[in-house]
Specification:
The protein is an alpha/beta fold and 276 residues long. It contains 11 helices and 7 strands.
């Protein structure tokens, strides 16, 4: 009987009071973290005024209902023990439901940028949506979408630390300039400890990148200086030999250093000749 009611509601776009226990969660819900204080505030508002905007649900092939949009409202309703919630039964596919869940959160601007990136990646990988198609549905530029997806190059631990510290998306994108994860972790630690702004963080990372290039320039310059120095030593050894001293020199070289050894025989102590 209930299944027929849902079928009729889909065609008439009616608002139904549906037991909240009958609504399955949306497996494609992009939002992973929910602020308890915000939910508590919403729950108190619902207690006083009711749910003003109906939840969107869709009927599965087995007749059960699955949430499309309204996760926070549903959670808040459960907090105050509300048995039924107003819903509109929508006839859409699983793919459209996943896209709709992302769009709703984006429009409300309460979706963490890492959660958004993860949701976009799932739409592309699991639902075989092209970036171009996704851009059209979300109303985003290709470059914006690409920048979002690049955030997933940061490992899970770094994403957690960035979110916990309340850093912005620009902070996260700046870290991507560093290809080495050890350096990324070091930069992030400095940014968090010193509470650096985005511009300060970018300056720090730029300094680290320049430092990475410095050793190459120093090696080239040092190699030139070492050749001059070794020539000077060779000339000095030649001068010693010309003075009649049998000096010997040995030069060895490794990746880390050049070793130059000069051996000069000790002159025997001889008594000075007397003129008397």
């Amino acid at each position: 009987m209930r299944k027929r009611i849902y079928e009729k509601a889909k065609t008439e776009n009616k608002i139904l009071q549906i037991p909240q226990a009958d609504i399955l969660p949306n497996p494609n819900q992009p939002r992973r973290r929910f602020d308890y204080d915000e939910l508590e505030g919403l729950a108190q508002s619902i207690r006083a005024n009711g749910i003003l905007q109906p939840l969107l649900v869709r009927q599965l092939e087995n007749g059960k209902l699955e949430l499309i949009a309204g996760e926070r409202r549903l959670r808040a309703a459960r907090l105050i023990g509300l048995t039924k919630v107003p819903c509109i039964v929508n006839d859409i596919s699983e793919t459209d439901s996943a896209v709709f869940a992302v769009i709703e959160n984006l429009q409300r601007q309460n979706l963490d940028y890492f959660e958004e990136a993860e949701a976009l990646a799932i739409l592309i990988s699991d639902y075989r949506m092209s970036q171009e198609e996704l851009c059209k549905k979300l109303g985003k530029a290709q470059s914006t979408l690409s920048n979002k997806l690049r955030l997933l190059k940061l490992n899970d631990e770094m994403r957690y630390k960035i979110s916990r510290a309340g850093l912005s998306e620009r902070h996260a994108r700046a870290l991507l300039s560093l290809n080495d994860e050890v350096q990324r972790a070091r930069a992030l630690s400095i940014i968090i400890d010193r509470h650096l702004t985005v511009s300060e963080s970018e300056a720090l990372i730029e300094q680290m990148l320049r430092k990475n290039e410095t050793p190459k320039r120093q090696i080239l310059k040092g190699f030139k200086d070492i050749r001059i120095f070794i020539n000077t030593l060779n000339n000095a050894v030649d001068a010693i030999r010309r003075a009649g001293i049998d000096a010997d020199s040995v030069k060895t070289e490794t990746d880390e250093y050049v070793e130059y050894i000069v051996r000069i025989p000790k002159l025997e102590d001889r008594p000075m000749a007397s003129n008397q």
